[in-house]
Amino acid sequence: MSIPCQLHPEDLSLRQSEIIGSLSYALDLTEGLPAGHAQRCCWIGMHIGHELALSDQELSDLYYTLLLKDAGCSSNASRIFALYGCDDLSLKRDFKLMDNDRFYELAKFTWSHIGLGESWRERLSRLMHLVDKGEQIGQELFLTRCEQGADIAEQLGFSPSVCAGIRALDEHWNGKGSPHHLVGEQIPLFARIALLAQVVDVFFAAGGQKAATETVNRRRGSWFDPALVDVFNRIRFLPELWDGLTDPNIAQRVVALEPLALVRNIDADELDRLTGAFAAVIDAKSPYTFGHSSRVCQYAERIAQQLGLSSPQCNWLRHAALLHDIGKLGVSNAILDKPDKLTDAEFEQVKLHPVYSQDILSKVGIFDSLALVASGHHERIDGKGYPWGLKGEQIDIATRIISVADVFDAVSAERPYRAAMPLTDALAVLDKMSGSALDGDLVATLKQTL
Ligand SMILES: [Fe+2]
Ligand SMILES: [Fe+2]
Could you confirm whether 92 is annotated as catalytic? Predict the structure, then answer.
């Protein structure tokens, strides 16, 4: 059986920074930002770190704070959609271009996004709710995101400094930030740098150097540590700073920025932790798919073991299962959280998620073969699947295993709008799909393990 096993420990020689850098593209998608945002923030923030003459250990911690600053981004997406009733991705993107310390800007932003497409009555009702509970809701959204991000960094084994930097990302120098209203130097240095880097990248993308520089200086002492703004005002004259922000090969520049003495190649256990952590990010995006990636992983493993696959092959399939839906981070919760039938236009958006998965996973060599599985997990044996319409033998065995595990979880798991389907009913659905959508032999194999 031809199933790759590239994740065998002997084959692992990639830098941790390279893998996390590549997976950070998934976090950019969830924030509704152009691909490479986390990498560009790392580029900007590390220039600040060097100008501050930080030690190698501090630079290493800053490096991962910057790459993982949005690790908690998926955890509040569903809540944002429920509150605002609009596309969470565009709301998050536009929020970053606004100064929420200023009441007028915040009010204008809120009205331009809340309940878009709904009646005036519904929009006003949402607005009244936000006005009434605004402070509490804001704290809750930021708290969820920051704590989840810090938890993920901790799971990955990063230092308390990295976790603290991620946890305090949205705090402002003047105490008007969230969630804890920390003031001045109460805010960890890495968080102060990460927020400044984020604003530079977002405003540079929107209006070039001038917009980025003006915004940073306008927020000196309100959002930002004045001393860091002074550092920025020195490094902004480096042409390479801005060249990096438009370089399509920013990933290579960022890999080269990691302190050489602290570079680490990833081992098999760390790769397990990384894929598990990113599966948790994926699964936190919507209550409708909560726990999905980890359950698909369990079912795929059962099939693999039943087929007698080798341990490296089982490991490889486990990673493929954990990351197969990583592209869902780029789909709006307005679609993912919709209990009713999707419109054709909405379904077209859903159909893009395997393509996004492929885009993200193919950015790093070690995941190349996972990218193929992820891109093909909604293909069907009869050729009626998406996104490529592959048929029969064109769909490799690994992809077919993930498809069976994926469909089994989709039909059997408990959802917010329905109880878990009894096992016999779920298996009847799979039987109906055998030979048309799914590989009948693999469906039979899964049944032997239940
Ligand atoms: Fe999927
Ligand atoms: Fe899935």
Answer: no
